[in-house]
């Protein structure tokens, strides 16, 4: 692929990706949307523009969190806590006994030693009281603590109830002396610890089960109902309602942009792969790609405005109009690509993707297949009816399983389906004329107008150059048959053939097919002048085509049907006069360009073969085949077909079509004998003198006189 073509492809691809990403990822600012956040004060009363009933993620999450909170922690008993703490009490008593008996330590040192015990936290006042007790009192405390500790730890103590258990300790101490009781209470409280601990896994499992048991919560708003009042603080529930009703102006979400960008690149790659596989003809035609981008851009904007609204409006989105235009103007392969593309776009934008995507794409494909080339106005009517029926069936298919609509709802949906079909057909018909004029495209309807004999240019051709007109009709039939055989556009080829020689209107008598009087005006001119007159019919034809505003594709037939061929007859005559060295071949060549499409290449071959067969008058099929083969080989060798997409296999098919058709048109005629005497006609012939019908049919008739200069 040449650099210029590659650059053009990349430029179109970049525009395509950017446009698609903007539509998919960016929420366009429109009136009626609010850029608010949770915690802000509502600037006004915001009302629901329509009735809505939706599953609220916010309410559902709140209900699930409440269900979780209702599940208490699950506790399990910790083994040996009671015995361990009683044993620990004995260890502490032994340590304190040693400290009490140690006379080498000061009171402060003893207090500090008791404070450093790792798992027993005693106040300094309690430690001082403990050390001040006499031995008998201390023994009574030691006897009281294990019993109280043992009794208390028989019950359940959790981390949440530990403080309450400590407050109940005095009721378990049976010591009359307040100091002794205070020390015992302090020791028991210090030794108490939970004997029930929470099981995190079982608790979380129970909470998960409680969450799962909560059904999705719904939120409802009637049309006109206030969602949030002016001055109220906005909550997540309010924001969700605004989003569902398309009243919320989102900020730019970079994750969403990245996701949309990836999808856009994939879609662009699909289009690029098709162009690569189909060849660069589409890239070489800026009108086709400009039309495609213009249509995509227009319908993308329309989809962005209509599809995300979650209302009846999305059922009016006329995707079928786009696909019918694409199918008729650019072909079915492009139509299928565009349908896939918009299927992804609608699926991204729609609030209920599957029903809306199916509704739009099925109708789009059916409409494009029914309208075909759009060669008759009735085709658009049939397509509109087919789209409406398809829409009704799709709506019914998705609505029936739910049965949540009343009669009015069904009437609305079915009415939208019918209007969608009518709207699509109308837009397509209007688009044919509009885009055909704006982008200078030969639409089927425009070709139908051009094919009518009452077109001013064809009327001039009939009256001023009747021989050329007759030749153009023969060539159009020949080229059309070849176009059908090799997969080109037959209708475009036929209409282009009608106009390919309109330049001969300017000087009709300089062309042999228009000389009814047999006078050759070239006999008064030198070969150079004659050649320029012949060559100039291309320029004259293009000027007439521009004057009558013929489409660019039709002008291509005028400009390319002779390619850069040589006006051989006058070139040879010039060589006879000036010698081979005295003649510049450029003076006798057409300016071109060479045929760049199948259709114009077929016209070149049909034009040359029809003229050659008419001039040589072959008497058999083999002779016709020889002439046709010679012409095709000559054009191939001279490089006149080097820029056209015709293959060698196509040329072989074309040869067979030309031979079959030309053999039927230019068949040899029987030369009948002349009548030597005038037959006498009896007023009442005898029955025996009347020839039977079969004999009369086979009897010779005089041949029509033919001019030696006839076209």
What does this structure look like?
With 711 residues, this protein is mainly α. It folds into 4 domains: 39-54 and 220-246, no CATH class; 75-198, no CATH class; 285-440, Arp2/3 complex 21 kDa subunit ARPC3, CATH 1.10.1760.20; 446-665, Hypothetical protein af1432 (Orthogonal Bundle). 62% of the residues lie in helices and 3% in strands. It is built from 29 helices and 6 strands. The protein has helices spanning 3-25, 57-69, 81-101, 107-115, 124-132, 135-152, 162-167, 178-191, 200-212, 236-244, 254-278, 281-284, 286-306, 319-330, 332-349, 353-371, 377-399, 407-438, 444-451, 456-464, 466-486, 490-499, 527-547, 552-560, 568-578, 598-616, 621-637, 648-665, 693-698, and strands at residues 46-47, 52-55, 75-77, 196-198, 218-221, 226-228. Strands 1-6 form a two-stranded antiparallel sheet. Helix 21 (466-486) packs across helix 26. It is elongated. The two termini are 45 Å apart. The model is unreliable at 681-711 (pLDDT under 50).
Topology:
Elements lengths: L2 H23 L20 E2 L4 E4 L1 H13 L5 E3 L3 H21 L5 H9 L8 H9 L2 H18 L9 H6 L10 H14 L4 E3 L1 H13 L5 E4 L4 E3 L7 H9 L9 H25 L2 H4 L1 H21 L12 H12 L1 H18 L3 H19 L5 H23 L7 H32 L5 H8 L4 H9 L1 H21 L3 H10 L27 H21 L4 H9 L7 H11 L19 H19 L4 H17 L10 H18 L27 H6 L13
Antiparallel strand pairs: 1-6, 2-5, 3-4
């Amino acid at each position: 692929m040449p650099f210029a073509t590659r650059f053009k492809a990349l430029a179109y691809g970049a525009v395509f990706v950017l446009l698609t990403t903007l539509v998919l990822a960016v929420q366009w600012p429109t009136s009626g949307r609010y850029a608010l956040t949770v915690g802000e004060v509502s600037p006004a009363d915001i009302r629901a523009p329509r009735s809505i009933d939706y599953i609220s993620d916010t309410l559902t999450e709140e209900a699930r969190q409440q269900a979780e909170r209702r599940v208490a922690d699950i506790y399990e008993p910790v083994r040996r806590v009671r015995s361990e703490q009683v044993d620990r009490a004995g260890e502490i008593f032994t340590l304190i006994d040693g400290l009490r008996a140690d006379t080498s330590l000061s009171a402060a040192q003893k207090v500090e030693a008791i404070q450093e015990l790792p798992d027993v936290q005693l106040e300094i006042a309690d430690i001082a009281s403990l050390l001040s007790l006499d031995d008998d009192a201390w023994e009574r405390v030691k006897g009281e603590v294990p019993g109280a500790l043992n009794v208390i730890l028989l019950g359940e103590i959790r981390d949440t109830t530990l403080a309450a258990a400590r407050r109940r300790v005095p009721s378990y101490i049976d010591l009359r002396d307040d100091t002794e009781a205070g020390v015992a209470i302090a020791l028991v409280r210090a030794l108490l610890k939970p004997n029930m601990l929470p099981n995190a896994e079982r608790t979380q499992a129970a909470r998960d089960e409680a969450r799962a048991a909560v059904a999705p919560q719904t939120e409802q708003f009637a049309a006109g109902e206030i969602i949030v009042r002016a001055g109220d603080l906005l909550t997540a529930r309010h924001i969700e309602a605004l989003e569902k009703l398309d009243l919320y102006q989102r900020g730019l979400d970079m994750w969403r942009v990245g996701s949309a960008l990836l999808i856009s690149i994939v879609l662009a790659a699909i289009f690029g792969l098709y162009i690569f596989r189909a060849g660069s003809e589409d890239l070489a035609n800026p009108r086709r790609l400009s039309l495609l981008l213009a249509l995509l851009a227009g319908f993308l904007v329309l989809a962005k405005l209509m599809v995300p609204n979650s209302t009846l409006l999305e059922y009016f989105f006329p995707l079928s109009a786009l696909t019918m235009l694409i199918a008729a103007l650019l072909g079915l392969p492009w139509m299928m690509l565009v349908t896939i593309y918009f299927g992804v776009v609608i699926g991204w934008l729609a609030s209920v993707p599957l029903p809306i995507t199916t509704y739009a794409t099925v109708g789009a494909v059916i409409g494009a297949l029914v309208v075909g080339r759009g060669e008759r106005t009735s085709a658009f009517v049939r397509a509109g009816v087919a789209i409406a029926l398809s829409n009704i069936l799709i709506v019914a298919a998705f609505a029936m399983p739910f049965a949540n609509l009343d009669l009015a709802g069904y009437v609305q949906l079915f009415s939208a389906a019918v209007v969608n079909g009518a709207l699509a057909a109308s837009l397509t018909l209007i688009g044919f004329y509009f885009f055909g004029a704006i982008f200078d495209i030969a639409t089927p309807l425009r070709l139908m107008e051009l094919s009518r004999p009452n077109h001013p240019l064809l009327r001039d051709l009939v009256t001023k150059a009747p021989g050329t007109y007759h030749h153009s009709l023969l060539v159009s039939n020949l080229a059309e048959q070849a176009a059908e055989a090799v997969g080109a556009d037959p209708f475009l080829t036929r209409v282009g053939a009608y106009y390919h020689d309109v330049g001969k209107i300017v000087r009709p008598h300089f062309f042999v097919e228009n000389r009814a009087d047999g006078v050759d005006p070239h006999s008064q001119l030198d070969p150079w002048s004659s050649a320029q007159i012949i060559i100039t019919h291309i320029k004259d034809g293009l000027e007439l085509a521009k004057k009558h505003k013929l489409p660019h594709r039709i002008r291509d037939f005028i400009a390319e049907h002779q390619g850069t061929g040589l006006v051989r007859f006058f070139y040879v005559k010039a060589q006879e006069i000036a010698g081979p060295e005295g003649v510049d071949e450029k003076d006798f060549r057409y300016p071109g360009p060479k045929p760049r499409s199948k259709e114009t290449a077929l016209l070149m071959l049909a034009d040359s073969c029809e003229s050659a067969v008419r001039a040589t008058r072959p008497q058999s099929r083999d002779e016709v085949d020889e002439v046709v083969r010679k012409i095709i080989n000559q054009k191939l060798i001279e490089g006149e077909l080097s820029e056209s997409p015709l293959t060698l296999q196509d040329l072989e098919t074309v040869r067979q079509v030309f031979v079959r058709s030309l053999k039927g048109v230019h068949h040899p005629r029987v030369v009948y004998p002349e009548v030597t005497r005038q037959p006498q006609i009896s007023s009442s012939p005898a029955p025996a003198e009347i020839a039977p019908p079969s004999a009369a049919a086979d009897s010779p008739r005089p041949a029509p006189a033919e001019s030696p200069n006839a076209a």
